[in-house]
Specification:
Elements: E1 8-10, E2 20-23, E3 29-32, E4 63-68, H1 70-84, E5 90-94, H2 110-119, E6 132-137, H3 149-160, E7 169-172, H4 180-197, E8 200-203, H5 205-208, H6 224-242
């Protein structure tokens, strides 16, 4: 693991220390913080056993970029703490209602965010986008838009296309309690797209979200406990994929 320079965060900070706030053009708040005092919240969580591939060049990872929707927004405090422990600068770009390929109400799509990050170098980020570990946690707001796996794979591929092939990538899958069939269809498409891409792995939120008490009453968003479990899943998937 390596420690890096402080990274820019859209919507959420890396850790609750020395934070300042500005406004990004996408409408997502940006904060910059230090990870020096980050600690893990004391709680009992449910986790899955490590499984799946390893990144092709884990030692080349210089920073972590997370793109997500409201589930990531809710888990941001725990993500800040747990990802900081990995020793990398972390950028979290999360916004409620974010979709993979559409931008309703000016909410920048995952595809456009990935394109911007990959094509417009930010001085606060690593110069080479291939040196980033990309974590995508999208798809929940796209469940039900198509009933064909091939069509969903094509949308997932739009998000993946601007990300360098040699950059390691994690995608956190989806779960809506009252839309199990649509969730499974989305997850099958994510799995297939990542298998075809290579140098990628899936974090299986769908395996945790079905446990009682993990989701809130709407069957979509995590409870307080679930937000911690979501963050733990992301952090453990990162460790399994690129850790020592």
């Amino acid at each position: 693991m390596r420690a890096g320079p402080i990274a820019l965060m859209w919507f959420a900070a890396l850790a609750p220390v020395a934070c300042s706030t500005t406004e990004a053009s996408s409408g997502t708040a940006a904060t910059t913080t230090s990870s020096a005092a980050a600690t893990t919240a004391a709680t009992t969580t449910t986790t899955t056993e490590p499984s799946g591939p390893r990144a092709e060049r884990p030692a080349a990872v210089a920073e972590i970029v997370v793109i997500g929707d409201s589930i990531t927004v809710g888990a941001t405090p725990s993500l800040e703490e747990q990802l900081a422990l990995a020793g990398y600068p972390v950028t979290i770009l999360a916004q409620e209602g974010k979709r993979m390929d559409a931008d309703p109400g000016g909410n920048t799509s995952g595809t456009d965010l990935a394109t911007s990050l990959a094509s417009e170098p930010d001085p606060e980020l690593a110069a080479d986008p291939a040196e980033r570990l990309w974590v995508v946690a999208l798809g929940t707001n796209d469940i039900g838009n198509s009933t064909e796996v091939d069509d969903i794979v094509a949308v997932v591929d739009e998000v993946l296309e601007p990300i360098p092939d040699d950059a390691p990538l994690i995608w956190i899958d989806t779960w809506i309690a009252h839309r199990a069939e649509g969730s499974e269809l989305m997850n099958a498409a994510i799995e297939r797209a990542l298998d075809e891409r290579g140098n990628a792995t899936v974090g299986r939120w769908s395996e945790l979200a079905t446990d009682p008490g993990v989701l809130s009453g709407d069957g979509v968003h995590p409870s307080d406990r679930g937000s911690i479990e979501f963050a733990t899943l992301v952090a453990e998937t990162v460790e399994d994929f690129v850790g020592a």
